Automatic annotation (TrEMBL):
<feature type="binding site" description="axial binding residue">
    <location>
        <position position="400"/>
    </location>
    <ligand>
        <name>heme</name>
    </ligand>
</feature>
<protein>
    <recommendedName>
        <fullName>Catalase</fullName>
        <ecNumber>1.11.1.6</ecNumber>
    </recommendedName>
</protein>
<dbReference type="GO" id="GO:0004096">
    <property type="term" value="F:catalase activity"/>
</dbReference>
<feature type="domain" description="Catalase core">
    <location>
        <begin position="66"/>
        <end position="454"/>
    </location>
</feature>
<feature type="binding site">
    <location>
        <position position="396"/>
    </location>
    <ligand>
        <name>heme</name>
    </ligand>
</feature>
<dbReference type="GO" id="GO:0020037">
    <property type="term" value="F:heme binding"/>
</dbReference>
<dbReference type="InterPro" id="IPR029062">
    <property type="entry name" value="Class_I_gatase-like"/>
</dbReference>
<keyword id="KW-0560">Oxidoreductase</keyword>
<keyword id="KW-0479">Metal-binding</keyword>
<feature type="binding site">
    <location>
        <position position="407"/>
    </location>
    <ligand>
        <name>heme</name>
    </ligand>
</feature>
<feature type="active site">
    <location>
        <position position="186"/>
    </location>
</feature>
<dbReference type="GO" id="GO:0042744">
    <property type="term" value="P:hydrogen peroxide catabolic process"/>
</dbReference>
<keyword id="KW-0408">Iron</keyword>
<dbReference type="InterPro" id="IPR041399">
    <property type="entry name" value="Catalase_large_C"/>
</dbReference>
<dbReference type="Pfam" id="PF06628">
    <property type="entry name" value="Catalase-rel"/>
</dbReference>
<dbReference type="Pfam" id="PF18011">
    <property type="entry name" value="Catalase_C"/>
</dbReference>
<dbReference type="InterPro" id="IPR002226">
    <property type="entry name" value="Catalase_haem_BS"/>
</dbReference>
């Protein structure tokens, strides 16, 4: 280590470690030759006392159980007592430390986005954009950078289900050579509110109600809709939140949005507005509401499991990163304000230019250390990217740094390996709780002149390459009054809500209507329900009527809009169904079989599905091994625990006898009935007909076929035309 160095050591700072760790490495070198292992662990931020203790052992490379201070533990089964039946002794430091640590294992969960799943990956530039930004990562085609992503729901607690109707967080940390860049977005393009000052109100209204503590992870309750009805600016986002976008089939099958308008700044200092988009390679797909509700019972971890299993299987989820860029002059001509986070820019107006691809290729090793302790900061920016004056974004810039202190307990949260930059980090900040770095030397202030005495004076500012804020021109002049106000166009609350609704397919519109009917049916205060419908009359008269009919209430008088809506036409990019990719890759097909089933037919379905890129799950009443015609087969899932809601399509291969027997098993009946009601492809052999008939599934319907190649083609789709036959569309 350099004497008198005032450099701070980080995990990305190769060859530098804390003296404590250096000492133990010295021991390791003499003892076991385990340096590489320890060093690797350290570089990955994986060093633990346990590793060090284990590896500094002189006579064994095998880990001995120790306490947190390195003392070997002789008995991890019994506490120290005054005699076998006597009282426990206070001196038992092993017991006390273990229980003490356990007592403090939980940290406060995130106030929002508490439920999340994370993964590591890599970002690669596919189209360099130096003309738009000097951002280090976008300079060269083919350049790569490690990333960590955390997806989340918003309202629920960290133990809540994965499939509520909710917005999903889509937070990406790019570990660039110019420092970390966090793009902390959502899976929906607009947001509920325009100004950060309303965020605590929004979140209080959607969280479990203050007096009764329920409902968990749900917006279907009085306080949320009370707030929404009184906040017409939320109407555009309400259309998104009540649409199928709130019910993703998989985290791998949803779009992501930076939401706010940001700034690119190029080497000449020229600024360009930018909106960020993530486009899933697997295409977008959603579940139906009924499916989502049933999945939450069958598998509350549905999305977390799906992400983990896909990565384990090498089926790496990927997204393209796209940008919409425009200048101030273009922005000034639009009928909406680009600084208003409740608005989007239609892709038909400004196409999304794809500039990169993100692939998630590694699961976390430790959920707590990585996913839970990940701290995203919208203030994590790199030179070449800057904020805009969006008042929602401006408020976020304060909140995230602040919240990490209360959540992670220390201002040194940036030293936690998942948060630490992977480029050098040197400054004069010192000390604080949980300080794990060991800055050395005399200089802990700047300016200093210690270098003149031959000492290391520490790091210096970088006027040329450091972050310099974009010289924003415009409103902030000496003559501008301080006001609590919003831009004029912020007052248009309905034009884009209408554009979104009208851009949906018929089914998708029906889903929005049904979702609002469902949610408002859970509202007990009639005036709250009425006010929401009164607002919706400004979006679309027909939608408002459908909702009023669904609630069996009179159509209330429309609320007066603050600004008259304008006709923005439609945008096909806003519909999931219009952009669906009928592909089996990333999708799961279940094959229900029983004793005597035709193994040949099962094998055929399996190979057809797998060769189209899908995966197969064999399902039977018993998993251990069932005699089928042509051999014995083990099932991957037991029927009662593997309902068809967790599958994308089903094939049913049964003998006639087995089919008849299964008509008396409610799990089998639900399996088939739900697959039909959720508009999934159903493949079947002749033997299965009795079960299909019992479940009122017409064998000649669209999407119902023999278990051959046609089934594999069907399995990639949903048969929305069936919907009118299976539910009463609002
Ligand atoms: Fe957040 N948000 N937010 N938010 N947000 C948090 O930060 C906040 C907003 C988003 O996986 C918190 O570390 C304010 C918009 C994601 O760890 C907190 C406002 C968007 C995540 C916070 C917003 C987001 C958060 C809670 C209004 C989409 C999860 C824990 C001004 C662009 C990140 C934490 C993760 C998390 C504050 C609005 C996305 C409290 C004050 C708009 C994806 O700081």
């Amino acid at each position: 280590m350099t004497k008198n160095s005032s450099k701070t050591k980080t995990q990305g700072d190769k060859g530098a470690a804390s003296p404590a760790l250096d000492n133990s490495l010295g021991d390791i070198q003499q003892g076991t030759g385990q340096v590489e292992f320890a060093q690797e662990a350290r570089e990955q931020g994986g060093e633990t006392h346990q590793h060090i203790a284990a590896n500094s052992d002189h006579d064994s490379a095998v880990g001995h159980l120790t306490d947190n201070h390195g003392h070997r533990i002789s008995d991890n089964q019994n506490s120290l007592k005054a005699g076998p039946r006597g009282p426990s002794l206070l001196e038992d430091f092993v017991l006390r430390e273990k229980i003490f640590h356990f007592d403090h294992e939980r940290i406060p969960e995130r106030i929002v986005h508490a439920r999340g799943s994370g993964a590591h990956g890599v970002f690669e530039v596919t189209d360099a954009i130096p003309e738009l930004t000097k951002a280090d990562i976008f300079q060269e085609k083919g350049a790569t950078c490690p990333v960590f992503v955390r997806f989340s729901t918003v309202a629920g607690s960290k133990g809540s289900k994965d499939t509520p109707r909710d917005v999903r967080g889509f937070a990406v940390k790019f570990y660039t050579q110019a420092g970390n860049w966090d793009l902390v977005g959502n899976n929906m393009a607009p947001f509920f509110i325009q100004d950060a000052i309303k965020f605590p109100d929004l979140i209080h209204s959607v969280k479990p109600e203050a007096d009764r503590g329920y409902p968990q992870a749900a917006s279907a309750h009085d306080t949320f809709w009370d707030f929404i009805g009184l906040m017409p600016e939320s109407m555009h986002m309400i259309m998104w939140a009540m649409s199928d976008r709130a019910l993703p089939r998989s985290l791998r099958m949803m779009e992501g949005f930076g939401v706010h308008t940001f700034r690119f700044v190029n080497a000449e200092g020229k600024g360009t507005f930018v909106k960020f988009h993530w486009k899933p390679v697997l295409g977008m797909q959603s579940t139906t509401w009924d499916e989502a509700v049933k999945i939450s019972g069958a598998d509350p971890d549905y999305h977390r499991r799906d992400l983990h299993e896909a990565i384990e299987a090498g089926d790496f989820p990927a997204w393209e990163l796209g940008v919409q860029t425009f200048d101030d002059a273009w922005a000034a001509k639009q009928p909406y304000d680009v600084l208003d986070a409740t608005k989007l820019i239609p892709e038909e107006e400004i196409p999304v230019r794809i500039i990169g691809k993100m692939t998630l290729n590694r699961n976390v090793d430790n959920f707590f250390a990585e996913t839970e302790q990940a701290a995203f900061l919208p203030t994590n920016l790199i030179p070449g990217i800057d904020f805009s004056n969006d008042p929602l974004l401006q408020g976020r810039l304060f909140s995230y740094l602040d919240t990490q202190k209360s959540r992670l307990g220390t201002t040194n949260f940036h030293q936690i390996p998942i948060n630490a930059p992977k480029c050098p980090m040197h400054n004069f900040q010192r000390d604080g709780a949980m300080q794990t770095l060991m800055p050395t030397g005399r200089a802990n202030y700047e300016p200093n002149s210690l270098a003149q005495a031959g000492e290391d004076g520490g790091p210096r500012e970088c006027p040329e390459t450091g972050f310099a804020s974009f010289a924003e021109m415009g409103e902030r002049t000496d003559t501008t009054a301080k006001v609590r106000a919003r831009g004029e166009l912020f007052a248009d609350h309905f034009s884009q809500a209408r554009m979104f609704y009208l851009s949906q397919t018929e089914n998708e519109q029906a889903h929005i209507a049904s979702a609002i009917v469902f949610e408002l049916s859970k509202v007990s205060l009639p005036h709250v329900r009425n006010r929401v419908v009164a607002q919706i009359r400004n979006i679309d008269e027909d939608l408002a009527k459908r909702i009023a009919t669904g609630l069996a209430i009179d159509l209330p008088k429309a609320e007066k809009p603050a600004r008259k809506p304008v006709d923005l036409g439609t945008s096909d990019a806003l519909s999931i169904q219009k952009n669906a990719k009928d592909m089996l890759k990333g999708r799961k097909v279940g094959i229900l079989f029983a004793e005597g089933s035709d193994k040949n037919a099962i094998d055929n379905v399996k190979s057809a599905v797998e060769s189209a890129g899908g995966s197969v799950m064999l399902i039977a009443s018993k998993i251990g091994g069932i005699k089928v015609a042509g051999g014995t087969l083990e099932a991957d899932g037991q029927l009662a625990g593997t309902p068809s809601v967790v599958l994308d399509a089903v094939a049913i291969i049964l003998t006639e006898d087995a089919a008849k027997k299964l008509t008396k098993d409610s799990a089998a009946v639900d399996f088939v009935s739900d697959a039909w009601a959720h508009m999934k492809a159903i493949g079947h052999d002749d033997g299965a007909l009795a079960l299909l008939k019992h479940c009122h599934v017409p064998a000649d319907a669209d999407g119902v076929s023999a278990p051959d190649k046609s089934f594999a083609a069907n399995a990639a789709k949903r048969f929305f035309a069936r919907e009118a036959d299976v539910r009463d569309l609002a």
